[in-house]
Amino acid sequence: MLDNQRLFLYTALGLITFLIYLTWMQTYHPPIPPAVVGTTGEPVPNAVTGPDGLADEDIGDLPIAAGTSATTESVTSEVAREEQLVSIKTDVLDMQLSTIGGTLTKLQLLEYPVSVDQPDVPFELMSSDPLQLLVAESGLQSRNGVQAPTHKDLMAVEQTSYGLDTAGEVKVPFTWTSDDGVVVTKTYTFRSGSYEFNIDYTIDNQSSEPYLVNQYRQLKRKPGTKDEKQQFVNTYIGAVISTQEDNYQKYDFGDIEDANLREDVTDGWVAMIEHYFAAAWVPDPGERNTAYSLYIQTSNPADYNHYVIGMQSSTQTIAPGAQGTFHTKGYAGPKIQENLAEVAPNLELTVDFGFLTIIAQPLFWLLKSIHGFVGNWGWAIVLTVVVIKALLYKLSEAAYKSMARMKKLQPKMAQLKERHGDDRTAMGQATMELYKKEKVNPLGGCLPMLVQMPIFIALYWALLESVELRQAPFIFWIQDLSIRDPLFILPLLMAVSMFIQQKLNPAPVDPIQAKVMQFLPIIFGVFFALFPAGLVLYWVVNNTLSIAQQWYITRIVIGDK
Which among 120, 346, 431, 543 is least buried, having the fewest CB atoms inside 10 angstroms? Predict the structure, then answer.
């Protein structure tokens, strides 16, 4: 028969198994395979046909006119030599745009330092560095064999440095002209205090033929080197797509390698996300697009493969002498839920609390509400625990009463053990009869623990995923609640509090089980040493309040001296 200690033991071992699994996934996750190259050394192309009859190389990363071909993703050396980098700075962003396609090649987040120890060095979300590649590319595709400005074509710009104007806005126009008189202006717009930006295309068809054209926008990255690492488990890093049918669908790097994504999307978006930050392309409401992915394999095995997620619009026909426009919206910044929700529906889901979102979301709301009053995330965690314990007090009272009755049965349980020895069947039957006679529910003391486990896991993901707690200080030596305690004081306090809790509970009758229980505080202390300090703080406060509750209920409410 399961008693309180045995259920506690099984639950603890289950949690440890869960933690070991997470550690294993972090350490031994299969690496991304190297590029597969053909005998000629060129990339091995995919043979899948894309939307509107265009081959895959006409979609996204290789946007060329139908009927032509390409064997490399790189721009020509002549264009590369003429490249200029345009610097743009707002109050929250420091960026660079390349005159090759007007590509966003560098983006630093001025309000998010790389670490507490480097407060003046901003985190770089986007970079064209091959070792930490993440760039936002966009361009136009021609549908009738004429020229169009892709992300590989050189564009002209009036100046190489821009800043906010008096209205808190900055516009950066790039221009391109075809040989037959099509003039395209691509204008970026950034605003003060915002991680959202706009791209507007104005197309002036001064040629003698209709101009069939569509826009595309894509995010290209190489995973691995630049991502902020968690000290216990890595959160999801990869592509995400949102559609009307599925508002949040992960499409990881392995998926991109396995098959090309081709999906019609209306009122959706695509994104590349990592631990605390996201980059996304968001089309206009009601606009029909084809979401796509590409796995770019390089001809040189020493180079890095790239992963692309993007969206391609429907074709627009611009008559000779007429003008056409395209518009799209981008986001590159922290995963703050209310900001993301304003950019696009369901974009806030990139703050992924996992399968316990239904619990984690209200917990984070409570945590954030308390923070609004106290102004310190550490104290907000402490007060959140107080609120949770207050809400569960009646449940705890009933549990501790059950545990007190179980404690009084310990002498009789010992007698049964002595009487029946190793006969487990007889021991179980006798134990059941004793519980029935004394009107004791052996599982009654386990309810608080069973309720706390999903709360613990949900709060773990809430603390792990929320950029608000990134580099958030508490007191004294805790200057970043999102990483482990540098002095391991909180894990030690957690182990001590767990040991005290065990001493307050009746000891298991089984001596082997009793010995295992004695080691649990040490085991948990070691595991919790790897956890974010904010989560360990939660557990320390929770254990401390549980000890106080148990003492009060057993000594004052029950009157057990």
Answer: 120
Evaluate whether 271 touches 239 at the Cβ level (below 8 Å): yes
Whose CA is closest to 216, among 272, 148, 156?
A: 148
Q: Compute the C-alpha angle 89/92/94, nearest 5°.
A: 35
Query: 3-state SS string over 92-138?
Result: CEEEEEECECCCEEEEEEEEEEEECCEEEEEEEEEECCHHHCEEEEE
Would you kindly state where each structural domain of the chain is located, as residue ranges?
Answer: 4-23+358-557, 31-227+234-352
> Within 10 Å of residue 24's Cβ, how many Cβ atoms?
10
Would you say 182 and 204 are in contact if contact means Cβ atoms under 8 Å apart?
yes
Helix H, strand E, coil C: the string for 9-47 is: HHHHHHHHHHHHHHHHHHHHCCCCCCCCECCCCCECCCC
Our CA dihedral for 144, 146, 148, 152, rounded to 10 degrees, sits at: 110
Could you say which DSSP state residue 441 is in?
Answer: -
Which 8-state DSSP code applies to residue 531? S
- The DSSP bridge pattern shows strands 306-313 and 288-296 to be antiparallel
Tens of pLDDT, residue by residue over 91-127, are 999 999 999 999 999 999 999 999 888 889 999 999 9
- Residue 448 in this model has a pLDDT that exceeds 80: no
In a 13 Å sphere around the CA of 225, the CA atoms on its Cβ side amount to 12
Distances (CA, A) of 91 to 56, 124, 165: 39, 15, 11
In the structure, what pLDDT confidence band is assigned to residue 66 with cuts at 50, 70 and 90? very low
SS (HEC) of 272-329? EECCCEEEEEECCCCCEEEEEEEEECCCCCCCCCEEEEEEEECCEEECCCCEEEEEEE
Dump the DSSP string for 205-242: E-SSS-EEEEEEEEEEE--SSSSPPPSS-PPP-EEEEE
Please give the CATH topology (third level) of the domain spanning 31-227+234-352. Beta-galactosidase; Chain A, domain 5 (2.70.98)
558, with CB counted inside 10 A (0-12, 13-18, 19+), is middle
- Tell me whether strands 277-282 and 169-177 are parallel, antiparallel or unpaired: unpaired
The percent helix, strand, coil of the chain (3-state, each to 5) is 40, 25, 35
390 CB-near residues (< 8 Å, 6+ apart): none
Structure tokens at 69: 């071909």
Q: Using CA atoms, how far apart are residues 557 and 178, in angstroms rounded to an integer?
A: 86
Backbone angles phi, psi at 334, to 5 degrees: -70, 155
